[in-house]
Amino acid sequence: MNFTLLEIKAISNDNYVAFTFFIGCMAMLAASLFFFFEMWNTDKKWRTSILISGLITFIAAVHYYYMRDYNLATNESPTFFRYVDWLLTVPLMCVEFYLITKKSGAKMGLLWKLVAASVFMLVTGYIGEAIYPAEKQSWIWGFVSSIGYFYIVYLIWFGDVAKLAGNAGPAVAKAVRTLAWFVLVGWAIYPVGYIAGTEGGLFGIKVLEGVSLDVVYNIGDAINKIGFGLVIYALAQSDKELAKA
Ligand SMILES: *C/C=C(C)/C=C/C=C(C)/C=C/C1=C(C)CCCC1(C)C
Question: Staple 67 to which of 78, 101, 214, 233, CB 3.0 to 4.6 Å?
Answer without folding.
Answer: 78
